[in-house]
TrEMBL record:
SUPFAM superfamilies: TPR-like (SSF48452)
Keywords for the protein's UniProt record, in alphabetical order: Cell outer membrane, Membrane, Signal
Protein's recorded name: RagB/SusD family nutrient uptake outer membrane protein
Organism: Terrimonas rubra
Annotated RagB/SusD domain residues: 336-424
InterPro entries membership: SusD-like_N, SusD_RagB_dom, TPR-like_helical_dom_sf
Family: Belongs to the SusD family.
Span of domain SusD-like N-terminal: 23-224
Subcellular location: Cell outer membrane
PROSITE patterns: PROKAR_LIPOPROTEIN (PS51257)
Length: 464
């Protein structure tokens, strides 16, 4: 059974009111409602939690901004038409100026700050609902910190002890800037929050669905995989894959569809006439109406369409908008927005299982089985499947290749360039940048240093 959130009109309105009441790092102007003033009882508390789902799905975060920035920074896109903020990010020469990036940063910390506020108001929640409420709040806080540390800091593994500067770690309600914590400290907090959420959240929901413990497990798999901690990534991915509630879609193109996918582990649902997530994804990628902002290089288009058996070739066109290599994945008026889905978790299981195969033969067998399920769907049969005796190295290379092809347009490739670089010191960037160059991480908004002159910005400089 899918775990989805039915977003009510009220939760959308509440999130919008809260977003307009207080800018990041600023006190609310006189005469405007403070968030804490809106929290008077359990109903208010749960309404604000529902609003958090809207915040993570809005255009400034998972609704498109997160994916678009990652795609700009990666190596698949044609950036020749990009200007302003877009061009600066694409050229990996970020400065302290840039509203496109700033809004992404502010929205993520808005999710974190509201989570911290809710944690101070747990007494409003009845004992029977406290575990569920606290679990959701901790999940949101972990997600916000995880996405920020992936974009604004060098990756886990950049230094032996991960003492490199991370991001501001916010675990309490504060107004003003907070100095950066180390990457090690940020990841430790993310894992702590997710593990507690895993214990607190319910196994299933009846009626309308929200995050369950399986969302926490899936995101833990993602976090550990980003850390190249393959034993833990495999452990959590295996638990999720073993849950019969999540089923790999028969068709490759259902993941972003209106209620047709069975893969969603945490999904923001489209609600007809009330809420349609993924607006910036459609705006930046949709190719059946106009030339989209994002199109692909000839090099990547060739890679993605070279296998005649790959049914995913239908995701691309070089004729729909003449002269441009475009994606058709988001060519819908509306769709459900998966935050984490089974295809990604199976790919994590496959690569992680192969990485630990030397000490766990069963992990290699499970990796091959799950990899072949994705290959069978992608190539319309078993022709491209791995043999039962496939080597760990072949499974790893296959998982990396298929991950890029399966998760095209989902903001995946950028994080893989950094993760693989941290794993073995090799840069796989097709644009020729070192995996740890200064321009591969985003610069913090100027507002951080305005609020705290000692705030440490990222080093200036690009990648080329």
């Amino acid at each position: 059974m899918k775990k989805i959130l039915y977003i009510t009109l009220m939760s959308v309105l509440i999130a919008g009111v809260f977003s307009s009441c207080k800018k990041f790092l600023e006190r609310p102007p006189d005469g405007q409602m403070k968030e804490e003033d809106a929290l008077k009882n359990e109903s208010d508390f749960m309404t604000m939690i529902n609003g958090q789902y809207t915040l993570i799905a809005n255009p400034q975060m998972y609704g498109g901004r997160l994916q678009t920035i990652a795609e700009f920074l990666a190596d698949e896109m044609d950036g020749s038409r990009l200007q302003g903020d877009y061009s600066e990010i694409f050229r990996r020469q970020n400065s302290i100026f840039g509203g496109f990036r700033d809004d992404f940063y502010k929205n993520a910390y808005r999710v974190i700050n509201v989570s911290n506020l809710l944690l101070t108001k747990m007494s409003l929640v009845s004992p029977a609902n406290q575990d569920n409420a606290k679990g959701q709040v901790l999940l949101f806080r972990a997600m916000g910190h995880f996405e920020m540390v992936r974009f604004f800091a060098q990756p886990y593994g950049y230094s032996p002890d991960n003492s490199q500067d991370g991001i501001p770690l916010r675990t309490e309600v504060l107004i003003g800037s907070v100095q950066r914590s180390t990457v090690a400290a940020v990841y430790a907090q993310i894992i702590s929050d997710l593990k507690e959420a895993e214990q607190l959240l319910p196994d299933t929901y009846a009626g309308n669905y929200k995050a369950t413990k399986w969302a926490a497990k899936a995101i833990l798999a993602k976090v550990y995989f980003q850390m190249n901690d393959f034993a833990n990534a495999y452990n959590y991915a295996s638990q999720v894959v073993a849950n019969p509630a999540f089923v790999l879609d028969n068709a490759y193109n259902l993941r972003y569809s209106p209620a047709l996918s069975k893969e969603g582990i945490l999904v923001i649902q489209n609600v007809t006439n009330y809420y349609s997530p993924g607006g910036e994804l459609r705006g930046n990628y949709r190719s059946d109406q106009n030339i989209p902002l994002l199109s692909y290089t000839n090099q990547f288009y060739g890679i993605a369409t070279q296998d005649p058996l790959d049914v995913r070739k239908a995701w691309y066109s070089n004729s729909l908008q003449s002269g441009y290599n475009v994606l058709t994945k988001y060519n819908r008026d509306f769709f459900d927005l998966p935050i984490v889905h089974l295809t990604e978790i199976k790919l994590i299981l496959a690569e992680s299982g192969a990485e630990i195969a030397a000490g766990n033969a069963g992990a290699l067998s499970a990796a091959i089985t799950n990899m072949n399920q994705i290959l069978t769907r992608a190539y319309g049969g078993t022709t491209r499947n791995l043999g039962v005796n496939a080597t760990a190295g072949l499974v790893i290379s296959t998982a990396r290749k298929e991950r890029e092809l399966e998760m095209v347009g989902e903001g995946n490739r950028y994080h893989e360039i950094k993760r693989i670089g941290a794993r073995n010191g090799i840069s796989v960037d097709r644009r020729g940048s070192p995996w740890n160059c200064n321009g591969f991480i985003l610069q913090f908004p100027k507002a951080e240093q305005d609020a705290m002159t000692s705030f440490k910005l990222n080093p200036e400089g690009g990648c080329f």
